[in-house]
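Lab manual, section 2.4: Encoding a predicted structure.

Procedure: take the sequence of the chain (719 residues), apply the prediction step described in section 2.3, and record the output as structure tokens. A sample record is shown.
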Amino acid sequence: MKTGAKKNIKKATKFLQSATIFFVIFLLIFPVAQAGELKNYTEYKVGEENGTVVIRGDSSREQFGSSIAKGDLNGDMIDDIAIGSPYFSVQDKKNVGRVKMFFGKKGFDVYADNKLQADMEIRGESANNQLGASVAFGDFNGDKIDDLAIGSAGGDKVYMFLGKTNKKFPEMIDLAKDSADVIFQTAELNENFGFALDMADLNADGMSDLIIGAPSASESGKLRSGKVYVVFGYRYPAYQFVYDFKKNPPAMIIYGEKEFDRFGASIAHGDINGDKRPDIIVGAYLSSTGARKETGKAYVFFGQAPSELTIFKKYPIGIFDPDITIDGEAMRNWLGFSVYAGDINEDGADDIATGSFMYQSEDKTGKAHIFYGDKKLTSQNQKISNSLRIFGDNDESDILGAAVYIDDLNGDSKKDFIVGAPGIKKFGKDSSGYVYVYSNQSIKNREKINMSDKMPTLVIEGENPNDWFGSSILTADLNKDGYPDLIVGAPNAYNTGGKEGAVYVILGKSGWNGKLKYTDPLASDYVTRSQIVYQAMDNFNLERFNKTFLDNCRNNLELCFFTFMARTKFKGIKLGPEIILYPDISPSQQFYKEITEMTMLGFLDGFGDDSQSKFKPDEKITRIHALRILLNSAGMLKWKEYAELNKELGGESAVYAQKTPYKDVSGRTYYAWWYSRYVNFAYIASIIKDENYFRPNDPIKQSELSEWFAAIKKFSGGK
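Recorded output:
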């Protein structure tokens, strides 16, 4: 090595003893190409965030939150929610079940944990009735007020309570001695009648029709093939009327395909073919496809013309053949365990969301699917060719797809895909469960997403291990602020004794709830300017170690940014109420906080390659500039201006005569006058490799950047 290089290395080693992380400037000179997709996400932990209202069960093993539904039962134009506890027990009646009603109100968001009291409680009739296995709302009697339907899967009944305005609801209804407004009961026993419920106006008469799933119902030699019953809504039902299917047959019966399919275990409705008629979607998660057992299926039954559904038709109308069949992909995929519908791609036809509940699945991963509706779907037995599949990350303690939902969660008027992945205790793992939200934009034009490669837009983590957080999902505007609140059930949550259950209400707002998080790019990805800022802040704990300095800076912004403002070419700088330092970095952008704080610390300045001093956050960072940022922010080397270096080395000729161990790095090039100092320092500290070429102006990949971080930490004694 030449004498000049040795001299610089000795000076670099000596400087280690007095290096500081303050007042370092870096100047990116060269325009570079656009980098790949940023892998960031927003994280919300329900046990830590202030924007969560928690409603907790109070009876052991009741599994409060197993079912949830929204509607306006009291007619005040604010959403209410019904929450089911099918395993609630009282005295000598085990698993009688109950449902609690909570009326929405403008002050809903002020309730502290466990302080929100139910406005009405409805208890089951007999032991093992499992009242609350399902709940649904709709205007059954056409009075413009929602009515509440509750499934009692163990009792083979559905109870309906009619909505009303300006009237007080009883605080307690005990079906062992009190009556519902209408009771529906099947002609056969042990059908699991009421296991799933939905309500929709199928015959266009202005009244919601009741759709009842009975997944254990049998028919003509097909044992427990499952059925779905439909009862049309009607005006002025007699008070305490018992709608017995033996005497009054339902309007429609949809029959399952094969025995033990569990057809009717999940139900939804939507306009899948865009003909303005609601279609019925039914899950049969134990259905098999050929030799592949329990792949699961979802069926679509197109809405019929109102003329085909009049009272002059002979009831029940039997439906045996679906219009669309969606098959699961692998054995024990259990596709159809959950179903929902909504128009996520804004083409005028609702799309089908469904989950593949992973239970000993041969591909060992849960899945969530969207099968896109199409106005061209008009005849029977058509296939939906356009779809999206989201694969889990093979963590068998999180059951991706146990619940699915579609709604706009961030207030951008575009619907997002919401997926529940409740945690279960399995293989020694404890998971609290998660809800994953994929924004409309993140899934656009995608056919498949592997969670190990692409994070969801929003990750919501449950409170405690084995809570089954994410078993049920709903949105409702409970405080009437115009933003949908996300409601998540955790029916296995432990509160005071065990498995009481809990429901979490995450209050809606404009934008995403939670804190922006970031995952490093793949090893093969190139690193961007903004990504390296985030990683340096995170790896070196710059915010924590410089808290006092940053606080002082915020209290005296003009002094703090005096040097920066003298250097930058950007004329639109604002220091309040929001700090704007770069023309292309706004408070709503990714890494705004990190970029602003790095500038406060003196690590960032205007960019010399742009007349407006743009930051250009998505451009690739070169290897030499990445090295400079790391050494500066780690406090290992302090930036020196040209005049300072000139004086230190003894003149301009000495600056340009700088040597390094690399053939492509020296001081001879005018813009590279500072390269040698950083390269020599990193070389002697074993941060960079002993090779012939350093390639200073090539972009750096994440794999090598990670190695540099590790080498710096090792050199600094693991700090």
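Check your result against the sample. The radius of gyration is 31 Å.
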